[in-house]
Amino acid sequence: MADAGTEPAASPVGSASATHVGGGRRPVSDVIGEPPVPDSPNEVELTRDLTAPRAARGWVTQQFGAELSEATLATAKLLLSELVSNAVLHGEGAITLRALLERDRFFAEVIDEGHGFSWTPPKPARQPIGGWGLTVVAGESDRWGIYEGTTHVWFELKL
After folding, report:
1. How far apart are CA 71 and CA 87, in angstroms?
2. pTM for the complete prediction?
3. How does pLDDT run across 47-98, given as a tens digit for each residue?
4. Phi, psi torsion values for 94, nearest 5 degrees
5. Which of 32, 75, 110, 143 has the fewest other C-beta atoms within 10 Å?
6. How many CB atoms lie within 10 A of CB 100?
């Protein structure tokens, strides 16, 4: 995991930069940087409907299930379900899921055609039901982020 003050990794494809990057096992503000650019990720377009999270879980199992540990696969499926659900409920246009498995990490990103958003962790007293998807991603991933001005969210799980 990167430490505060380290140089950001290579910029992702495109000119947008990450507005928020965090790690699940330490405070969000302690991590700075952007995800490394995937060399050749697997990619799938998902239907914008309530079956999309299930389709994402099935796809990641089919693509990576034989290579990931049971625990890592379960975490990847949970986080993808949260991000795809957010894209269905709050996004616009096409939903694209990209994922890449490297020797030391599983990287995934969910992209839709929305206009971007900013994220503030919910407060339990104010939002007891709903609105916790990105908090789950922040808590369970090793690193994650949102590209500035987009609805393009990524996460990374160390292997």
Report:
1. 24
2. 0.73
3. 999 999 999 999 999 999 999 999 999 999 999 999 999 999 988 999 999 9
4. -65, 145
5. 32
6. 21
